[in-house]
Amino acid sequence: MIVHFSKLFESGDANTSEFQDFPYFDDIQVEMLADFIESVRLDAPLVGKNKTSWQDNQGKIIPETELYQQYNAWHYHSGEYSESEPECYTYNLEWNVKGLKSSAVIHYQKITEQEIILLAYSPKHIPFPKIINSTNPLSTRFS
Predict the structure, then answer these.
(1) Collapsing DSSP states into helix, strand and coil, what is residue 123?
(2) What does the alpha-carbon distance between residue 112 and residue 5 come to, in Å, rounded to a whole number?
(3) pLDDT band with cut points at 50, 70 and 90 for residue 46
(4) I need a labelling partner for 124 at 20 to 30 A (CA). Which of 32, 58, 107, 131 fits?
(5) DSSP state string for 72-106
(6) Whole-angstrom Cα distance, residue 44 to residue 123?
(7) What one-character-per-residue DSSP string does 21-66 give?
(8) Residue 40 has what pLDDT?
(9) Helix (H, G, I), strand (E, B), or coil: what is residue 121?
(10) Distance CA 26, CA 32 (A)
(11) Number of C-beta neighbours around residue 20 at 10 A
C-alpha cells in the first residue's frame, strides 16, 4: 500500500488535544506513526480499531458527515491500548470495530484500496468531530 502525508499534516500548525500536526509530535508519537506506516505498507496485521468516519460502530450513517463520506475519510485507533489483544486484527485497512480502542487516532483518506493520505492525528479522539467545527482541520486536507 502507498502512504502519503497531506502537506498540511506534514507541516501544519495544529497542536491541540483534538488535532496535532506532525511538527509537534514527540518521539513516541513519531515511532507510533512510523510503525503504522510500515505495517500498512507491508500489509501486516494491525491491532487497533479501524473504521469509516461517517458511520457508527453498527454501520449507521452519522448526521452531518457527508464530507467524510464523499472523501472516504477513515480513522485508525493507535496509541496506548487498555487491552493487550484485539478480538480480531485489522488487515489491509478494512473495517474492524473489534480492534483495540485507544484515545488517540490517525485520520486518513482512502484514495484507493492501495493508497491512503494521512490527514491528521488526534491525541485525544473526540468521536465524530463535526466538519464545520473551526478547530477541525480535516475539511481542508482532502484530495
Answers:
(1) coil
(2) 15
(3) very high
(4) 58
(5) TEEEEE-S--SSSS-SS-B-TT--BTTSBP-S-EE
(6) 23
(7) -GGG--HHHHHHHHHHHHHHHTT--B-B-EEESSB-TTSPBPTT-H
(8) 96
(9) strand
(10) 10
(11) 21
First-last CA distance in the chain: 17
Residue 134 has pLDDT above 80, yes or no: no
**Residue 47 pLDDT exceeds 90:** yes
86, 98 contact by CB (below 8 A): yes
Residue for grid cell 506513526: 33
Whole-angstrom distance, CA of residue 29 vs CA of residue 124: 13
Taking the C-alpha atoms of residue 137 and residue 140, their distance in angstroms, rounded to an integer, is 6
**What average pLDDT score do residues 17-36 get?**
95
Interval 64-80 mean pLDDT: 91
- Is residue 107 within a helix (H) or strand (E), and if so which, with residue range? strand 105-112
| pLDDT tens string 75-94 | 999 978 887 889 999 999 99
Q: Which grid coordinates belong to 137?
A: 482541520
Determine the pLDDT at residue 115.
97
Name the helix (H) or strand (E) containing 71: none
What residues have CB less than 8 Å from 112, skipping those under 6 apart? none
